[in-house]
Structure to design on (95 residues):
């Protein structure tokens, strides 16, 4: 079964605006605090690598949500797994 592989991953980033937007409070870029504005997610996956085709199955959860009042949402994940979890299926590498 050498075609089956595992993956651990972390993803982080955000989308900022240059001007304040009432529909998205806190979305404007602020150089002095942009590191705290990154959202972070993490997960595990399984890969089926058939050399001519790669199938990916991933499950991930939020770790840090800068828009939440308690941003370290990973603490909530154990209690609210369904609300914090995303399942992705893909063909080929993500990029």
């Amino acid at each position: 079964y050498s075609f089956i592989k595992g993956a651990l991953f972390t993803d982080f980033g955000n989308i900022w605006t240059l001007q304040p937007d009432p529909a998205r409070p806190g979305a404007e870029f602020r150089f002095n605090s942009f590191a705290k504005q990154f959202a972070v997610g993490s997960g595990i996956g399984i890969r089926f690598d058939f050399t001519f085709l790669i199938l990916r199955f991933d499950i991930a959860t939020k770790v840090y949500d800068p828009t939440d009042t308690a941003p370290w949402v990973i603490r909530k994940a154990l209690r609210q797994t369904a609300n914090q979890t995303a399942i992705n299926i893909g063909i080929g590498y993500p990029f």
